[in-house]
Amino acid sequence: MGSREYLGEFEQVVLLALARLRGPAYGAEIHTEILDRTGRDVSIPAVYVTLKRMERKGLVDSVVAEPPEGGRATRNYRLLPEGEEALARSRALLERLWDGLGAEPA
Amino acid sequence: MKPPALARGLVRLFSDARDRAFLLQDLDDRFSEMARAKGSRAARRWYWAQALSAVPWALRADGELMRRRSWAGLAGDLRLALRMLTRRPLYAIGVAGTLGLGLSAATLSFAVAWRVWLAPMPYPDPERVVRLYEIEPPAGGSGASDAVTESRRQRLSATLLEDLRANSWRTIEAVSAASRGMQPEWTRDGEAQRISGVAVSPDGFGILGIVPTLGRLPAVSEREILLSDGFWRSTFGADSAIVGSAMDLGYGPLPIVGVARLPAGFPGEANIATTIDFGDTEDRAFRYVEAIARVGPGHAVAAAEAELNAFLGALAEVHPEHRGWSLEAVVLGDDLVRPFRPVLALLLAAGTTFLLLAGVNVTGLVAARRVDGRQDRSIRLALGASEGRLLRGSLIESLMLATVGSAAGVLSAYWLIAPLRAMVPQDVPRLDDVGVTWPLALGALSVGLSVGIALGVTGYLVSRGARASVGRAPTWRAVGVGGRRALVVGQVALTTLLTAGGAAILHRLSTLRAIDLGFDPEGVSTTSARIPDRWNVTRELLDRLRTRGIPAAAAFNTPMSGDSDAYDIPQLGMRADAASDEVVYHLHLVSPGYFSLMGIDLLAGRDFGPDDHASSQRVVAVSDQFADRYFPAGTPVESVIGRILSPLIYEETGPMVVGVVRSTRHFGPDAPVEPEIYSPLSQLSLEPITLLVRGQPDQVAEAVSEVQARVDPDLRWAPLVPYTSYLDEWFAPLRLQVAMIGVLGALGLLLASLGLYSLMAYQVAAARRELGVRKALGAPDRTLLLGVVARGVAMTIVGAALGLAIWYRLLPWTAELVDGIDAGSHVVPISAGLVVGGSCVLATLLPAIRATQVDPVVTLKAE
């Protein structure tokens, strides 16, 4: 459901961070990735809320991973093909909009 | 190093249940890292920022949820709550009804107490407006108590009022007469109707802050009419052309000069106001004027009183009528409310108590229902409902009930106000203004809804506790039941107390009503005037009235009218056979026909007649009590007694007794019968003369005023009122007490029954397992039924006994507060206890029957 929708800005940020991590990642990892790449200390609760919403849209899915020795359980998210598609669509949309403005997209 | 607990709580509250643990863990980890890297201060600040950011995100997510499915959830919860409630109509009615009753009682008592007692009087600076009384010296001379009793408080004579008005005061701005309760007959388009009026001295308008909204105030010496704003709107359709026209109040057309808002409460609820002019009267002992005054700004009422008394002291040097008397200034608002204050305080306390009790009782009902329905909870949890969802469900259910209950409570209070007003005596000040106002209604509703929220939370907590308690004996339940049991016992006790009080007052009222007053003024109207020419004028009045077919009589000093005229017994030269503490006799001066008109039986001898005149043998009639006491051996008729009024009349011998009449209770049914002597008005005359005619005021007013005008147009007559109005006035505070306590007692009974019911229902619900086991083991229904009823009966007996014990304990105090409660009667309080007990036992029957219907198989399976 909702796969034809465009992504919101924060959704794109979270989804891109997840894509960069290449593989299942949990909230704190995604948060760190965003922080490292953009320098923005985004809200961790916001990351969770956004991930859950995108899971409902079918862009990502999640499993609760068994805790490793001495570690703790995490909910790990994975980018689904629908998520990759949505990212591509968003990028295409932005590029079409930037086209001819004489500047590269940020 | 731990993250700030409050912020962590915020995150917990505003996060999705599924991810909550992971989110908190992530935040905690990051917090620790940050604390190590940048210090705890920065870390805490960071954590707070993160926590606060959770709120809008969670709300936004919730908003989406709402849009997507939560409305469906809410609707579902509403449907579920409705289904639950319709499945248990008795429970729903019980909760909503109890809450409604409590709120209704509280709203009503607040509405009455506020408007009658607590709200500021509707004129400017009410604390500076005082009523003036002239206080009679204590009867027993200097040794008597200094406390001012009601009977010593007298009105002012017109002469004294004029003296006060003429004086220039330091502490007082103005003094005025304010005569309430005028009921002139207004003839409009040939049709007569009775309206209410008030007459004040010219300064009275200023004292009461009356300013004309149209036209001007009535002039000093003219008979001009000021319309009240309400009367002007309701009767004249707010037509401003009415000013300048005239009204016929039976004295010919009087000009209407203006319209003003007349303060309700005092002086009464008046349609019109006019000025009063007493002319030049000189009788300082004729005290009949209601006087008010305005104390100057910055001066205490006590200071004004002191200045008044200094003035009166100086006056007494010249006028012996004031010797020993004093002036009292009482804040007018207090004076009007004074007789009703105890019952209003009681009313307020009872209303509040009932609201509290209603709250406690509905909590009991909800708790019982929750323990009973703990399976629902297990099933819903198993089906995936969250705790929050269950709390919401509980809140929705109780808010639904609270809404219905509060609305019912406020509406019933609104509807009950009018019948209640009709039930209580009209003498209660500002009664007409009592109403359920918007602020009061909204206040009551918000109290009701707050109770609803509290109930929802309590219900939820109880059902959680109930789950936790299976198989164990949780302390909260033990404490809870103990506490609730004590509350039920307390309620039964309180209700017994109230019912006993109500029954005692009712008993007293009926006893007093049944007391033979010795006279029967039914169907007699009365008015009074000072008649300077004495007997000739009075006789002409009576003759003219009788020729017109109106039985009439005249008298000085009539019973229960507030008049009093008593003289020393020893002066008569009488000696009682036994030791008697009576030192005075009442002297009545009456015209022929007085006894038959007033229903006073002639027991021996004869009535006065035309042959008893100024130059004939002086005669008197005496009361039977006088005869029994001073002529125990035989009839006093034909005996000559000592001279009456010896300082005024010098005669060689006293009058001869020609008749014996039945004793009257001069000061009302609860006053002792005292010796009385009647002398014919033709031989002895004092003022004021009371005119008595047979017929209701509206039947005879016209003829009476015609005759009065014919005989002497200059005489000023008080308004014609039914004689029974004196009796009504006397009974008014008592009737208010009966009405209030009756309503409160009935409400208390209902609430106590409900409280007992809810507690027993709760206990039966909680003991379902035990009952199931006992039933499975073969206990007969009767045993189970009796087991439950016995518990209810035990609590009822303890409560009723406690209530009665308190009743007897408080009796001396109650007897002081409410005159003449019969301390010796045990029948009344004990029957009140029995009524309460019986109702409470009935209230336990339903849960008891429920106990017998426990299905052991179902119960045991459920555990």
SSE layout:
The complex is a heterodimer of chains A (106) and B (863).
Chain A: H1 9-21, H2 27-38, H3 44-57, E1 60-65, E2 74-79, H4 81-98
Antiparallel strand pairs in A: 1-2
Helix pairs in contact in A: 1-2, 1-3, 1-4, 2-3
Chain B: H1 5-13, H2 20-38, H3 40-87, H4 89-118, E1 129-135, E2 153-154, E3 156-157, H5 158-166, E4 172-182, E5 185-188, E6 191-194, E7 197-200, H6 202-207, E8 212-215, E9 225-228, H7 229-236, E10 246-248, E11 253-260, E12 272-275, E13 287-289, E14 291-295, H8 301-318, E15 326-331, H9 332-337, H10 341-372, H11 374-382, H12 387-423, H13 438-469, H14 475-514, E16 524-529, H15 535-547, E17 552-556, E18 566-568, E19 584-590, H16 594-597, E20 602-605, E21 619-623, H17 624-630, E22 656-661, E23 676-680, E24 689-694, H18 697-711, E25 721-722, H19 724-766, H20 768-776, H21 781-817, H22 827-852, H23 856-862
Parallel strand pairs in B: 7-12, 9-11, 19-23, 21-22
Antiparallel strand pairs in B: 1-2, 1-14, 1-15, 3-13, 4-7, 4-14, 5-6, 8-11, 9-12, 10-11, 16-24, 16-25, 17-19, 17-24, 18-19, 20-22, 21-23
Helix pairs in contact in B: 1-3, 2-3, 3-12, 4-10, 4-12, 4-13, 4-19, 10-13, 10-19, 12-13, 14-19, 14-21, 14-22, 15-18, 19-22, 20-23, 21-22
Structural features, described:
The complex is a heterodimer of chains A (106) and B (863). By secondary structure, chain A is mainly alpha-helical. Chain A has one domain: Orthogonal Bundle (Arc Repressor Mutant, subunit A), CATH 1.10.10. Helices cover 54% and strands 11% of the residues of chain A. Chain A has helices spanning 9-21, 27-38, 44-57, 81-98, and strands spanning 60-65, 74-79. In chain A, a hairpin with an 8-residue loop joins strand 1 and strand 2. Chain A starts with 8 loop residues before the first helix and ends in an 8-residue tail after the last helix. Chain B folds into five domains: 5-72, no CATH class; 88-124 and 338-470, no CATH class; 137-324, no CATH class; 473-516 and 724-863, no CATH class; 524-723, no CATH class. In chain B, the strands form four sheets. In chain B, strands 1, 2, 4, 7, 8, 9, 10, 11, 12, 14 and 15 form an eleven-stranded mixed β-sheet that branches. In chain B, strands 16, 17, 18, 19, 20, 21, 22, 23, 24 and 25 form a ten-stranded mixed β-sheet that branches. The model of chain B is unreliable at 467-479 (pLDDT under 50). Classes of the chains: A mainly alpha (106), B alpha+beta (863). Chain A binds chain B through residues 26-28, 31, 41, 43-46, 48-49, 52-53, 72-75, and chain B through 11, 14-16, 18-19, 21-23, 25-27, 29-30, 46, 49-51, 53-54, 57-58, 60-61, 64.
